[in-house]
Amino acid sequence: MRVWIVAKEGRLPLQPGVNTGRMGALATYLSTHGHTVVWWTSTFVHATKEHLYDENKVLNISDTFTMILLHSNTIYKKNTSIKRVLYNDCLSKELNKEIYKYDKPDLIFCAYPSEQLCRVALSYAKQFEIPVIIDARDQWPDIFERAFPNALRWIASIALLPMKKRAQKAFTEATAICAVSPGKLQWALDYACREKMALDRYIFIGCSRAKIEKEALDSELKEWKNRGISEKTWNICVFTTLSKSSMDMDTVINAVRMTHKQYPMIRLIIGGKGDDEQRLIDEVGQDDYIHMMGWMNQLQMTSLMSISKAGMLCYRNTKDFKDGWGNKVGQYLSYGLPVLTSATGFSKQYVEQYGCGFAYEENNPESLEKIFVDLITNTEKQRLTSQRAIERFETDFENGVVMGQFEDMIVDVYESSK
Questions:
Q1: Rounded mean pLDDT of the chain?
Q2: Strand-by-strand arrangement of the 339-341 sheet
Q3: Are residues 206 and 25 in contact, defined by beta-carbon separation less than 8 angstroms?
Q4: Considering the entire predicted model, what is its pTM?
Q5: Residue 282 buriedness (CB in 10 A; 0-12 / 13-18 / 19+)
Q6: Helices 182-192 + 161-173 axis angle, to 10
Q7: What is the predicted pLDDT for the residue at 120?
Q8: What is the 3-state secondary structure (H, E, C) of the chain?
Q9: What is the pLDDT of residues 337-391, one digit of tens each?
Q10: pLDDT higher than 80, residue 43
Q11: Residue 321 and residue 171: Cα distance in Å, rounded?
Q12: pLDDT value of residue 418
């Protein structure tokens, strides 16, 4: 099959060892399993907020894999901002200009957001009767309401009506809907005003255990040891975007402080950047057992996970995050790290059903401290939970498993459309 992927993914497969994310992994998998892939993406890297190129760029990765990077002079620094909307508008205009220059695909797989790119892809597909799968990633435009004070959210809701109508149109016109979790799938189906059908599916964000040369791993572990972090300390990882509106980091920090009084071997390592970063740095202050690392590369994260005891999923229970399922969950599980989640939706249900983690209460550090102490003092519980975490990774998150599910869905949708 000839498959087009339309997704402005944050990381691109341009350097060895880069974690390319959901769409990069899918493009690579399909192109090496008998399909031809054209991936429409962006010259702008979301994670670093930098341009790779200053104009549209076509990259022939292999005989079966082409990347077309679309350029927008408008960029954004804040993830929730008007400039990000304008950036998406610019990209969609570039896509509309370039899309007719290439051979038609058999199927289009389009990531949502953005609804602007989805709209162009759906319009093109309708002209040529091409099936389209839309993959629901983030709950746009609903997330913009959180940028307003509670008292003004009714105004935001009205202001966002045009975007909501376009989102509804996109999900209604899709041949099938995919999503990263059951909650996201239901959210998209609600926009489409229909029930789940056989072709609609949720597929987790997959990952692979990173292969690290021993010399590089030993060198990185030495760096961690210099910071007071080793196999002998009880290490907790948090890899996330540091946003005060979506992440409850204060509960985690306070729970670690409380636990540290009795168990001084505990360590909290926070990797990520965002609008709440400086406040958290100030909050942590002189606590030498809490480490604010900023952006962390793949080697830093994997080496840390290899000597850690748990991974945190610390979402606030807002309408758009309570069923959240972060892209780091699979990585935590791959290293046997129990997932400790504050979300009351799907992640709580999942870790409790499979015994691969524990749920605590948002804004209740005592509830999280209790989990820390239980795991520190009960090594058998730690071992069993870690074992179940690895089992869940191999069942639900291992990259080959996830990519196979994607391929099955793509083939099913194509065959059904015929």
A1: 92
A2: 290-294, 266-271, 234-239, 310-313, 339-341, 357-359
A3: yes
A4: 0.86
A5: exposed
A6: 100
A7: 96
A8: CEEEEECCCCCCCCCCCCCCHHHHHHHHHHHCCCCEEEEEEECEECCCCEECCCCCEEEEEECCEEEEEECCCCCCCCCCCHHHHHHHHHHHHHHHHHHHHCCCCCEEEEEECCHHHHHHHHHHHHHHCCCEEEEECCCCCHHHHHHCCHHHHHHHHHHCHHHHHHHHHHHHHCCEEEECCHHHHHHHHHHHCCCCCCCCEECCCCECCCCCCHHHHHHHHHHHHHCCCCCCCEEEEEECCCCCCCECHHHHHHHHHHHHCCCCCEEEEEECCCCCHHHHHHHHCCCCCEEEEECCCHHHHHHHHCCCCEEEECECCCCCCCCCCCCCHHHHHHCCCCEEECCCCHHHHHHHHHCCEEECCCCCHHHHHHHHHHHHHCHHHHHHHHHHHHHHHHHHHEHHHHHHHHHHHHHHHHHHHC
A9: 999 999 999 999 999 999 999 999 999 999 999 999 999 999 999 999 999 999 9
A10: yes
A11: 20
A12: 83
Q: How far is CA 204 from the centre of its chain?
A: 10
Query: What percent of the chain lies above the pLDDT cut of 70?
Result: 97
